[in-house]
Amino acid sequence: MRNDRTVYAIIPALNEAEAIAAIVNDLHALRDDDGHPLIHRVIVADNGSTDGTGQLALAAGATVVQEPRRGYGYACMAGIAAAGDADVLLFVDGDNSVVIQETSSLLAAIDHGADLAIGSRINIEPGSMTFPQRFGNGLACFITRLLWHVPISDLGPFRAIRRTSLYHLDMKDMTYGWTIEMQIKAFQCGQHVTEVPVSIRCRIGRSKVSGTVRGVIGAGIGIFSMIAKLWWRERRRVPHHRARRV
Question: Three-state SS string across 186-219, please?
Fold first, then answer.
């Protein structure tokens, strides 16, 4: 694995005090085969936590940026702004659902030419994903495949992307549509998108999305409205006789 490029991990976090320090420590502990760090900086984007998440992350050695505006996209953008000129950005949830050691597989995909490497949740621990999560995720992927004729099986938030590739996507959504916007726009821009099998464990603490009715409804509206918006914009921009993707 290459060690001549800088990789910054971005953790958007809202009230993840129970897990955040362990995640930061695990990211810092990652090494390649030659003993070099895989992650050169860990950035925690504190999205208005009230449980000391930011302080605990700072104590564990992370760079902490504050983003009081609630929304996954807002937190990610704050982390991106703090990342400066890093070559690769790794997005990691702050709830301990990710197996941090699988980071190397995502970075290997980038090293082999991918612009965007998505962690496709294949090894699913019982109880780690609710039925609404699985159903909504599967339906969103099915619709995306149907509309754009592209390979997509998961909207997993555990992902790595080249900073320059992310810049070209001109991300707009600041809430629940962030992940699907990134994937669809990457396909639209002709970027090399690949999926890497990863695991998901039961999270620590209560989910802000699947743990509440409001979160489930909000996520559904955000994801499917983003798909519709990007499809409509493409139809208006591209002539109807456009060749279909294969």
Answer: HHHCCCCEEEEEEEECCCCCCCCCCCCHHHHHHH
pTM for the whole structure:
0.90
Task: Check whether 245 has a pLDDT greater than 70.
Answer: no
User: Domain spanning 7-234: which CATH class is it, in words?
Assistant: alpha beta
Strand order in the sheet with 63-66: 63-66, 41-46, 7-13, 88-91, 159-162, 116-124, 193-200
Instruction: Kindly provide the b/e burial profile for residues 209-230, where b requires at least 16 CB atoms within 10 angstroms of the residue's own CB.
Output: bbeeeebbeebbebbbebbeeb
- Annotated domain spans of the chain: 7-234
Q: Up-side HSE of residue 9: CA atoms within 13 Å toward CB?
A: 31
Question: Which whole number is the average pLDDT over 31-39?
Answer: 94
The residue among 235, 234, 42, 220 whose CA lies nearest residue 134 is 220
State the Cα–Cα distance between residues 141 and 123, nearest whole angstrom: 18
Q: Tell which residue, 25, 68, 27, has the closest CA to residue 45.
A: 68
Q: What pLDDT does 237 receive?
A: 76
For 219: left if phi > 0, alpha if psi spans -120 to 50, otherwise beta; the answer is alpha
Fill in the DSSP letter of residue 177. Answer: T
